UniProtKB/TrEMBL annotation:
<feature type="transmembrane region" description="Helical">
    <location>
        <begin position="403"/>
        <end position="421"/>
    </location>
</feature>
<dbReference type="GO" id="GO:0022857">
    <property type="term" value="F:transmembrane transporter activity"/>
</dbReference>
<dbReference type="GO" id="GO:0005886">
    <property type="term" value="C:plasma membrane"/>
</dbReference>
<keyword id="KW-0812">Transmembrane</keyword>
<feature type="transmembrane region" description="Helical">
    <location>
        <begin position="273"/>
        <end position="295"/>
    </location>
</feature>
<feature type="transmembrane region" description="Helical">
    <location>
        <begin position="375"/>
        <end position="397"/>
    </location>
</feature>
<dbReference type="InterPro" id="IPR050277">
    <property type="entry name" value="Sodium:Solute_Symporter"/>
</dbReference>
<feature type="transmembrane region" description="Helical">
    <location>
        <begin position="326"/>
        <end position="354"/>
    </location>
</feature>
<dbReference type="Pfam" id="PF00474">
    <property type="entry name" value="SSF"/>
</dbReference>
<feature type="transmembrane region" description="Helical">
    <location>
        <begin position="428"/>
        <end position="445"/>
    </location>
</feature>
<feature type="transmembrane region" description="Helical">
    <location>
        <begin position="234"/>
        <end position="252"/>
    </location>
</feature>
<dbReference type="InterPro" id="IPR038377">
    <property type="entry name" value="Na/Glc_symporter_sf"/>
</dbReference>
<feature type="transmembrane region" description="Helical">
    <location>
        <begin position="45"/>
        <end position="65"/>
    </location>
</feature>
<dbReference type="InterPro" id="IPR001734">
    <property type="entry name" value="Na/solute_symporter"/>
</dbReference>
<protein>
    <submittedName>
        <fullName>Na+/solute symporter</fullName>
    </submittedName>
</protein>
<feature type="transmembrane region" description="Helical">
    <location>
        <begin position="197"/>
        <end position="222"/>
    </location>
</feature>
<feature type="transmembrane region" description="Helical">
    <location>
        <begin position="6"/>
        <end position="24"/>
    </location>
</feature>
Amino acid sequence: MIDDSTYAVFIALFVIFIAIGFLGKRFRKGDLSKIEEWSLGGRNMGTALVWFLVGADLFTAYTFIAVPSSMFKIGALYYFAVPYVSITFAIAMLTMPRLWRYSKKRGYITAADFIKDKFNSRSLAVIIAVTGIVAELPYIALQVVGIQAILTSMLLGSANIAVISTVAIVLAFVALAGFTFVAGLRGVTLTAIFKDALIFITVAAVIIGVTLSLGGFGSAFSKVPTFVTLPSRFAAAYISLFFMSALALYLYPHAINGSFSAKDAIKLRRSQSLLPIYAIGLAFIVLFGVLIYGVPSAMSLIKSLPPSSSGVLVVPTLIASTMPGWFVGFAFLGIFIGGLVPAALMAIAIANLLTRNIIKEIKPDIGAKLETTTTKWFAVLFEFIALGFVFIVPATYAIQLQLLGGIIILQTMPAVFIALFTNKLNKYGLGVGWLVGIVSGIYLVEVANHFGLLSTSLMSSPFGLLFIGATATAINLVIVLIWSAVSPGKASPDFVKGIQGV
């Protein structure tokens, strides 16, 4: 239930959260006028800190709101998030330590730095940077959807709910922008620890409390027996969703940014080997979308809401209907800042791309301090751009925001991942493959949605429904591999010489 204690606990914990964010400036002190110190924490994060920082991307507002919402609406298809998390860290252990070693040796801040250095191509680096920015913005916006859902749940029945919610979100983002600007990645890392502590406790409490009261998961599944198994028509969609999403995660700028913050490649690898622990919690979070069917009071409230908003309120409604008021405030704050912390990391990452890989190409004589200051301001700007972007797509289809970003970011896979293991890729083939992959991906999304608002990222195929990202990436890869086979490329001599011994 929501009562006065809910608001008191929520506000008190939010104040603590903001304080921790600003105190991050003093954590492992460094010269924050240097881009490496502000945006990468001085490359000084140990195993535990990287684990929390990268894990912040898993227990997010997206995790708590969009996936259970889709499970509630559609069923077993959206359990793809669990194997996706399990597989993505195997991919990370294969790619990220190698990219980290290159970044440390050559001073990279972004993946686009690697592309520019290896292929001696500023234009290809700019393409990768622009793609990262465009793909990341919907991911940040998705966190805002989760924040909106929490505030809507807390304010149900209040007058002017939209106005109050909007003001609250803006104030939260002002505070977020403040500590992001001041403390950079250090503030994000400390708040990630605080956030994950709240969320781990929330997941454990809800799963134990609700399942015990229901007598197990069977009671909830008996209400929706079709959710127990995956319909055969969704088999190809399920496989393509979890596999391509796993490939996409560590192509996102924020995941690379978090990986680059590690103290050394060994600590990075250790943190990645422990990250599947998050998958255990995620498996239960997805089931929140089923558990609610076994709670009559929660279902009654959901059915009374407009279809456009009921989906994203599944988890908040379940928590509010089953937990005491003070704990609702505790849990809601965990989900609320579960949107803010990843948003800050993502904003830092794409601000790096804009300043370092686009603006510096236009104005190469920009000084180190001005580069850092510019990056700080762009991080703030990107946070508020995402805040406005969220109103474009209906909240019920929030997950499609992330999947659209996934289709876009997947087109950088040949240039970032495959290029780590071969010097034979042709840079022109990479550029053409990227272009065709992007165009075909966006076109197929538009066709699948009949050129209207986004509601799906699945397309028809001979195998059944298929994630569009798989098709677009396959087209991209075919072009890159054929072009590189006919006209093999080569890494720049400076890069080859510079990574000797790495």
